[in-house]
What we know:
Elements: H1 4-12, H2 15-25, H3 29-50, H4 56-66, H5 76-80, H6 85-98, H7 103-114, H8 118-142, H9 147-164, H10 166-177, H11 184-190, H12 194-198
Helix pairs in contact: 1-3, 1-8, 2-3, 3-7, 3-8, 3-9, 3-10, 6-8, 7-8, 9-10
Amino acid sequence: MANFIDLLMNQLSGTESAQEISKNLNAETGQVQNAIQQFLPIMAKALGNNLSQQGGLESLFNAVSKDHDGSILDNITAALGGGGSQSSDMGQKILSHVLGPKAYQVAQLLGQSSGLGAEKSSSLMSQMAPLVMGLLGKQTRSMGLGQEGLGQFISSSLNQATQTDPKNMGFIASFLDKDGDGSVTDDLFKMGAKMLFKGWFNGRG
């Protein structure tokens, strides 16, 4: 079975997405690509965490069935073009549901680790979130997944990623589980993960 995190990396972390978001943010493409590569596994892990909450799987399945058919991926440049407010508003709603109060902390983390800064990282996340959901919806349809199959797809993908890269996935899990107190910069150095986290994409097997 395909690995959801690898699919995200292969389809959404390339130069096409990075260059378009770079234009929208007036930022360096390299920093944007680093932030995207770091955001995607965090988003996948957060989606997985939500499955353990009451009604979480049902809610996710309904969302990808009704609102995210994957057509957004047919033209990523157009979807990201200008950082349109409609796409950004959708992204904010997705982030609010999936990450909740952790969303700004994730933006701080990406900002510190990539050099992009929290504000631009937050905007990047809003632009990427609909693409993530679009890819999940596309896979759900192409694989003919029902509600339980979707949950197994995400869970098995996370398990495989954890076996492949336990340090990075362990850091992501610890970061998402933290209570939100203290400095994100301190957390990075305490966990010894700043440079490790930057090496996520290059270190994938």
